[in-house]
Amino acid sequence: MLVSGGLDSATILAMALRDDLACAAVSFDYGQRHRGELASAAAVCRSMGVSDHRVVHIDPGPLSGSALTGGGDVPHPAGVEDIGGGIPDTYVPARNTVFLALALAMAEGIGASELHIGANAVDYSGYPDCRPEFISAFDALAEVATKAGVEGNPIRVKAPLLHMSKAEIITMGMQLGVDYGLTCSCYDPGEGERPCGQCDACLLRAAGFAEAGVPDPLLEVST
Prior knowledge:
The chain is mainly α. The protein has a single domain (7-215), classed as HUPs (Rossmann fold, 3-Layer(aba) Sandwich), CATH 3.40.50.620. It is 39% helix and 7% strand. It has helices spanning 7-18, 36-47, 95-110, 132-145, 147-150, 166-175, 200-212, 217-222; strands at residues 25-29, 53-57, 114-116, 156-158. The strands form two sheets. A two-stranded parallel sheet has the order 1-2. A two-stranded parallel sheet has the order 3-4. The chain starts with 6 loop residues before the first helix and ends with a helix. The model has no long low-confidence stretch (mean pLDDT 92).
């Protein structure tokens, strides 16, 4: 389970546990400006009783050039309608490719049969590595790049939220008892990791909760 600390990954973790899957979680420290998400990932795992949670530290050098890794300011769009018109400055070069490759190695090493990622292609910022084409391509890669795949037991890549809206994801998570007050979505947090409320991730999160018709517990915690 790739667990970032955001609401999408918290939801897929809850879905996997609902399905009685034995889950090992992995998060990545790659020099991101919103490193508070790592504490959120740990809190989410603890709240769901997942004890196998590993944090992989990655040299941030190859992932530089993004607004999330020191390559300029995080954009603050005027509204949700301005998101998704192109690939934003918060895109981290090949991030999901790197993350999934490391998770694939971890999965094969511990004998896991699936990789789960919270990629979403409906309410998202336009990242190329959140699209169905990418997930399908990496799934095919996993089949030919591993001993497990060559021997006929490929590690499958699962993205259960791929075609769900943010409101549908939140509704699903609420039904499964996800504590979204533990999650972190903001790309540009302020003092005390308080969400900025203006970046892509904050706007999409706010719109999702509004459409789902429920309050965001993170905002209640922050006030």
